[in-house]
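Re-run requested by the PI after the first attempt was lost when the workstation crashed. Everything re-entered from the original request form. Ligand of interest: flavin mononucleotide.
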Amino acid sequence: MRVKRDGIFTSDPLALDVIATNPIASVVSNPRLPDNPIIACNQAFVDLTRYGEEEILGRNCRFLAGSGTEPWLTDAIRKGVQQRKSVLVEILNYKKDGTPFRNAVVVAPIFDERNELVYFHGSQVELEEGAEAPMLTRRVRAAEKVKTLSKRQHEVLTMVAGGLRNKQIAYELGLSEKTIKMHRGLAMEKLGARSSADMIRLAVEAGI
Ligand SMILES: Cc1cc2nc3c(=O)[nH]c(=O)nc-3n(C[C@H](O)[C@H](O)[C@H](O)COP(=O)(O)O)c2cc1C
């Protein structure tokens, strides 16, 4: 059954956590299903791409690519997915009506407590064509925000960006889960991130 909660479309309630109330266009895919289909998307993704929710769920995200899409950038995403590493590329994509747009997309793996790959998170930002170095501005802003974090918060952010959950981060750093939650919450506040997905995107933009 498909549910719509907080402006998110999915039939997988667990995926809700990842993109909950994310103002940035976001999708979650399930790499354990054939062809890594999208299992959740938010309203911002529907608005950006102009596809209906029923046209998005169950499909691989490659439908955004088209004749002008740079094959080497698609290769970079494919490689990131294969190697389970986060990637950020600025790729030419197309909306449903054929309108091309420059998409600064971040694709990042998400692992469960047993270190098994469970999801990929994708977030898409339309770059304004003609604006001066929009991605550079985003990167600089992200790096500036990251600089305000304490050493511990920075460590936690690095692990969140690597797709780790609180439990694993606690284990890796030899701290309690409660302490990790606290650091994570403070880092989120300082970064002005509204969800884990936002936080991951910022970290990738900052070059972490
Ligand atoms: C979560 C996720 C989000 C993705 N978002 C985009 C996207 O916004 N634009 C795009 O061109 N490709 C995106 N991709 C990449 C395609 O889904 C696909 O992996 C890529 O086209 C390479 O595979 P192919 O050679 O089989 O098409 C995304 C992939 C994943 C896993």
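Saved to the shared folder this time. The pocket of flavin mononucleotide is lined by residues 27, 29, 36, 60-62, 64-65, 74, 77-78, 81, 91, 93, 103, 105, 107, 120, 122, 124 (CB under 6 Å).
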